């Protein structure tokens, strides 16, 4: 996308002060609306939000920076990187805006553990069948500086450097079929090399 520079018309004398007063009033009003709309829960940046969130009762922060809260304990074994999982989830931004829900898409999403963003992959491996977690992904464990757009409308659904919140339930899992496992590993290595990450 290119940005076109548009010349600005000259401003009449005496209008500059009025302009700055108007801009200041708009900024104050916008800040007040934003604060009220989020009930003071939105942070100025991801690091601030996550630091505050880490202090909430029951929130655990892993070494990678993933934050989670156990909502319901499951039973049995946990999936590994070489499994395919079925997960019900609802994804939201920190202002509460929902960007995706398996309930709207007809039920659990099925995907290989190694085929999703790092934070989601890590969270799934903490779960047993029936476990329900609320997780928060720092940008580096989600989409980072990449924004996600709705392919139908081209509207931004997930802004760049967004903290992502998911409520997720592990429904089931099973090993990736051997014939697909090598292909998945090759795809993961390719993605990591494109992102400048070390390959395992």
UniProtKB/TrEMBL annotation:
Please, which domain of life does this record's source organism belong to?
Answer: Bacteria
Which PROSITE patterns is this protein grouped with? FKBP_PPIASE
Q: What is its EC number?
A: 5.2.1.8
Give GO MF terms, alphabetically: peptidyl-prolyl cis-trans isomerase activity
- InterPro entries found in the cross-reference section: PPIase_dom_sf, PPIase_FKBP_dom, PPIase_FKBP_N
Primary enzyme class: isomerase
Q: Where would one find the signal peptide in this protein?
A: 1-36
User: Keywords, A to Z?
Assistant: Isomerase, Rotamase, Signal
Residues covered by the PPIase FKBP-type domain? 82-174
The reaction(s) annotated as catalysed by this protein in its Swiss-Prot or TrEMBL entry are: [protein]-peptidylproline (omega=180) = [protein]-peptidylproline (omega=0)
The record's PANTHER family line, in alphabetical order, gives:
39 KDA FK506-BINDING NUCLEAR PROTEIN (PTHR43811:SF19), FKBP-TYPE PEPTIDYL-PROLYL CIS-TRANS ISOMERASE FKPA (PTHR43811)
The similarity comment for this entry is: Belongs to the FKBP-type PPIase family.
Q: What is this protein called?
A: Peptidyl-prolyl cis-trans isomerase
Which organism was this protein described from? Answer: Sphingosinicella rhizophila
